[in-house]
Write a structure and sequence with these properties.
276 residues, alpha/beta, two-stranded parallel ribbon, 9 strands, 16% strand, binds NADP nicotinamide-adenine-dinucleotide phosphate
Length: 276
């Protein structure tokens, strides 16, 4: 049966790689969104009867409403929503520019929620659907200078874990993908940064100033990450709730979660002492 995929942020990185795989698949329709349609020329080589390109800035409610109208007038529905669009921000917490932080929340958290809210009624009507949210390894563990970025992705985790409970009986699944650093534009043109100036934080200056190097040096291969996401959706009946990808995500999340469990257990008597 043909599945219709909607993927946000398909101009580069994971979104572009996943859109390419979906565009090649005989059993899939693709709705690929970007802020600039010129960035989607790479899709011209595939069967255009199965592809819609749409201009969507996830912070723009009018564009998202138009997207949903276009979907209803074409493929009719969405079976797989991939909330991929996102940006980064590198700074110590204290030196972060709150306007830039708020914008990142608008894109990474509220943008994701804006798109999901527009698509959920279609999935509820058909009593099926898959929502894939691009979270991050940094939603399962943390690093200095990535605090507010982590905060957006921890927000995505809390949002997704709750949504999953609310839609479980409606045939809708929600999977969070938590990649480690990967070779995309995320740490380059898709991120803002503020290099530490306060003497107490100068130890972090090098890591912030060299951050765009990870566009080339990060261990994660976006093609492999896109293929894992595609394979999960097309082969698994029950998707994992969390999918950490890469060594940092796997080891970092396990270590962080084990430490958290151990600390919570150690303080059991205190925790249980506050209910009367
Ligand atoms: N790469 C990593 O190391 C890594 C690790 C973990 C998680 N992630 C997450 O993975 C997702 C994809 O990022 P990526 O690594 O593939 O980076 P990327 O190559 O920079 O792709 C980001 C995409 O998001 C789009 N975007 C940015 N702001 C947008 C907005 N306001 N509205 C709509 N689209 C917007 C960009 O479009 P434009 O071309 O218009 O800017 C681009 O298509 C993000 O959510 C990111 O946080 C990345």
């Amino acid at each position: 049966m043909t599945k219709t995929w909607l993927i946000t942020g398909t101009s580069s990185g994971f979104g572009k790689e996943l859109a390419t795989i979906v565009a090649k698949d005989e059993d899939a329709n693709l709705i690929a969104t970007a802020r600039n349609l010129n960035d989607l020329k790479y899709l011209d080589q595939f069967d255009q009867t199965k592809i819609i390109k749409s201009v969507v800035d996830v912070t723009n409610l009018d564009e998202i409403k138009k997207l949903s109208d276009d979907i209803k007038n074409s493929f009719g529905t969405v079976d797989v929503l991939v909330n991929n669009a996102g940006i980064g921000y590198f700074s110590t917490i204290e030196e972060s520019d709150m306007e830039q932080v708020r914008y990142m929340f608008d894109v990474n958290v509220f943008g994701l929620a804006n798109v999901t809210n527009e698509i959920l009624p279609m999935m509820r009507d058909q009593k099926s659907g898959v929502i894939i949210n691009l979270s991050s390894a940094l939603a399962l563990t943390t690093l200095p200078t990535m605090g507010f970025y982590s905060a957006t992705k921890y927000a995505v985790e809390g949002y997704s874990d709750t949504l999953r409970q609310e839609v479980a009986k409606l045939g809708i699944q929600v999977m969070n993908v938590e990649p480690s650093g990967a070779r995309t534009e995320w740490s380059g043109r898709s991120s803002m940064k503020s290099i530490p100036k306060i003497a107490d934080y100068l130890q972090f200056s090098d890591s912030v100033s060299s951050v765009s190097d990870s566009v080339h040096d990060a261990p994660g291969d976006p093609k492999l990450i896109a293929k894992v996401i595609f394979d999960q959706v097309t082969t698994k009946k029950n998707l994992p709730k969390h999918l950490p990808l890469g060594e940092f995500a796997y080891n970092g999340s396990l270590s962080n979660l084990k430490n958290m469990v151990s600390e919570i257990e150690k303080n059991q008597s205190i925790s249980l002492s506050t209910d009367d």
